[in-house]
Design goal:
Shape: globular
Helix content: under 10%
Largest sheet: 9 strands, antiparallel
Number of domains: 1
Strand content: 35-45%
Number of strands: 18
Number of helices: 4
Distance between the termini: 15 Å
Oligomer: single chain
Order of helices and strands: HEEEEEEEEEHEEEHEEEEHEE
CATH class: Mainly Beta
């Protein structure tokens, strides 16, 4: 842990989360197990998602790391090592933030880069991806805007993944999700630059809020007996509930499924893609 003074974000301070429990300023690569030794003492391990991140796709420069390159699929860093069965995890009652720069991608559209958490049981393969929970502090999307032009968007998302089976026994994959990109995100959160930005999420029991450069972007409330209600910025009027967007999630066993987040540990990840690189200045987590 660094000894330098780090300012407490206003939203974290207001929530009483003033203890810095995780920090990496990426002043060197020494905190990254880039050779996949899976030994203790590292903050990041290179098997975050899909393919293993190697030295060909990450470098450190001017106190930040760059993740990117022509490696196929997705790759990145995680705060937990499955072979070691140890690492840093987050739980309900924290404020997570990172300073990231990500330009327009070259080629493929879609999500990533992302700063996010994945539930530990799912990360370890004990429950399976499609039964798990995912919190995206930020995922940057590139797609067409309403004028048909390429546009990058901020997306802060609370997912609960689940399996749904068809009557003929074939498995479908669907999402019980509370996420901006279901309802109007194209008009709400466009990006106009490729500069550095600070992305954060405040995680409290039954409540998640997302911030961009300290500004509240949207928030979600959820409970064991209800599907989420969510809001844009400081507008107190709830947006449509998830079941109004996806009627098939009204099955009783799906009601309240987002509360999985409040009882599970989560692995913190930084993930990129071959055509969508990212620079990361620092990551900080407060409790």
């Amino acid at each position: 842990m660094t000894t330098k003074e780090v300012p407490i974000p206003e939203a974290a301070k207001a929530a009483g989360m003033t203890t810095l429990v995780f920090e990496d300023d990426f002043d060197s690569m020494d905190t990254i197990d880039i050779d996949a030794t899976h030994q203790p003492g590292y903050k990041w391990y290179p098997d975050a998602y899909g393919h293993r991140l190697t030295r060909d796709y990450i470098y450190q420069k001017d106190s930040y790391i760059h993740i990117g390159g022509p490696q196929p699929s997705s790759y990145g860093l995680a705060t937990y090592s499955n072979p070691l069965d140890a690492g840093f995890t987050v739980t309900c009652g924290c404020y997570m933030e990172a300073r990231i720069r990500a330009g327009m991608p070259t080629g493929k559209y879609g999500g990533i880069p992302a700063f996010w958490t994945f539930k530990l049981a799912d990360f370890k393969g004990e429950r399976g991806w499609s039964e798990g929970g995912e919190l995206d502090v930020v995922e940057l999307f590139i797609t067409k805007n309403k004028d048909g032009k390429d546009q990058k968007y901020f997306c802060g998302t609370l997912h609960h993944h689940y399996r749904q089976w068809t009557e003929d026994g074939k498995q479908e994959r669907a999402y019980v999700s509370n996420l901006v990109n279901n309802c109007g995100y194209r008009d709400q959160f466009p990006f106009v630059d490729d500069d550095w930005h600070t992305y954060a999420a405040l995680w409290q029991k039954g409540h998640m809020a997302w911030y961009l450069d300290g500004q509240l972007m949207h928030s979600a409330r959820y409970s064991p007996d209800a599907l989420p209600e969510y809001y844009y910025r400081d507008d107190p009027t709830p947006l449509p509930r998830v079941h109004e967007v996806y009627p098939h999630v009204t099955k009783p066993e799906r009601i309240g499924s987002h509360s999985i987040f409040d009882t599970d540990e989560g692995v913190v990840l930084l993930t990129s893609r071959e055509t969508y690189p990212m620079d990361v200045d620092w990551v900080r987590i407060w409790r």
